[in-house]
Each structure stands twice: as C-alpha cells, then as structure tokens.
C-alpha cells in the first residue's frame, strides 16, 4: 500500500476503517488493557461454573495481516462468561479472551466478543492458543469433576498496552503548570 494520510486531517474524503486503526496505533502500540482494572476476570458470587469480566478498555493490534492498526474495544458493564462442564476424570485449562472479528480480512462477522476457549482435559493440561485478533484476559483451571470456579482457579493474563504518549507526557504536570500560570 502507498503513503496514507490519517483520515482525521482530510476534508470531504472517504477512507477505509483501517486508516483509523493505523492512526490509533500511533497511540496504542501493543495489545493490552488501557487501565489496570479493565476487563479483569473474577469469581462469580455465588461460585458456580461462571466467571465475571469487568468493564473497561483494551487495545488489540490486528493480527490477520501486517498493518491492520489497533482496534479499540470497550465493555460498559460486567459480563458473565460460562465455563463448560468439567471433565469427570481430568482437569483442563480454559482461556478467556476478547476477539475482534473483521469481515474485511476474514469471515463474515464484524464484532467484538468475549469467548471461553475450553482446553483439552489431560493429566497435565495446557492452555489453548488464543485466536488471531484477540487479547487473552485470563486462564481458568477447571479441575476434574468440579462444579464451581473460585478465585484460586483464575490466573490473570492481562497486560497494559504500551503508548509512546503515556511514556513521554504527564497530564498531571501539564494541568499543574497551566493552573500555576506557566502557559
């Protein structure tokens, strides 16, 4: 592809959504959550075969191909995710992810969804692989024949997205200097 001008700076033009995502990628360079509490996976109460996914933001760098840009996702309320019935003989490790489906690159859906990817039961289970265009939020250890998931069974996999802006600018310093009359 050729040189692109970010769509925010053009008059009366049309552009692919990919250009918006490439602009967003200048702010959020890596896949990750935006704030430390975003999209945390926790035990439901009362405990059962469900977990809760907190509200919050994440940046997902597109991974179907190069130069897809960064998808911004937002969950505005706690979501309940269901863990399938435990194997009677062997434990497994499930993976909780948020997945972006984009029909422009693959398939027919244009959506963001939370998914529980069930692992394979085994004496020494391993976690399944995260899908393309996704962010891993947590692993859930599903013991043999269990009927509930506790906090001890949930391993947090979230990482913060990196941003060159956050690393070089402190908004609290800017606000203080403006307030103190430095500008």
Written description of the protein model:
The chain has 183 residues and is an alpha+beta fold. The protein has one domain (7-160). Helix content is 13%, strand content 30%. The chain has 3 helices and 10 strands. The protein has helices at residues 17-25, 164-168, 171-179; strands at residues 32-33, 41-43, 50-53, 56-61, 70-75, 79-82, 92-101, 111-117, 134-142, 154-156. The chain has a 4-stranded antiparallel beta sheet, with no helix packed on it. Strand 4 (56-61) and strand 5 (70-75) form a beta hairpin. 22% of the residues are buried.
Count of extended strands: 10
Rg result: 20 Å
Question: What is the count of helical runs?
Answer: 3
Q: How would you spell out the order of helices and strands?
A: HEEEEEEEEEEHH
Which stretches are poorly predicted, pLDDT < 50 over at least 5 residues? Answer: 174-183
Q: Number of domains in the coordinates?
A: 1
Identify the overall geometry: elongated
Distance, first to last CA: 42 Å
In helices, the fraction of residues equals 10-25%
Structural class: alpha+beta
The overall average pLDDT, rounded, is 88
What order do the strands of the largest sheet run in, or round the barrel if closed? 8-7-9-10
Could you give a short account of the major beta sheet? 4 strands, antiparallel
Beta content comes to 25-35%
Structure summary:
The chain has 183 residues and is an alpha+beta fold.
Task: Spell out the blueprint of helices and strands.
Blueprint: H1 17-25, E1 32-33, E2 41-43, E3 50-53, E4 56-61, E5 70-75, E6 79-82, E7 92-101, E8 111-117, E9 134-142, E10 154-156, H2 164-168, H3 171-179
Antiparallel strand pairs: 1-4, 2-3, 3-6, 4-5, 7-8, 7-9, 9-10
């Amino acid at each position: 592809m050729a040189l692109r001008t970010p769509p925010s700076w053009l008059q009366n033009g049309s552009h692919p959504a990919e250009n918006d995502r490439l602009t967003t990628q200048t702010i959020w360079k890596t896949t990750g959550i935006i704030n430390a509490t975003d999209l945390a996976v926790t035990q439901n109460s009362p405990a059962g075969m469900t977990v809760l996914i907190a509200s919050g933001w994440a940046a997902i760098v597109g991974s179907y191909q190069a130069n897809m840009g960064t998808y911004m996702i937002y969950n505005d309320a706690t979501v309940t995710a269901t863990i399938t019935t435990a194997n009677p003989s062997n434990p497994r490790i499930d993976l909780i992810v948020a997945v972006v489906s984009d029909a422009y690159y693959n398939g027919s859906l244009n959506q963001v969804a939370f998914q529980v990817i069930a692992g394979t039961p085994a004496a020494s289970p391993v976690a399944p692989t995260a899908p393309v265009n996704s962010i891993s939020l947590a692993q859930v250890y599903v013991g043999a024949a269990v009927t509930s998931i506790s906090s001890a069974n949930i391993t947090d996999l979230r990482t913060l997205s990196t941003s060159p802006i956050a690393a070089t600018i402190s908004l609290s310093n800017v606000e203080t200097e403006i307030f103190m009359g430095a500008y």
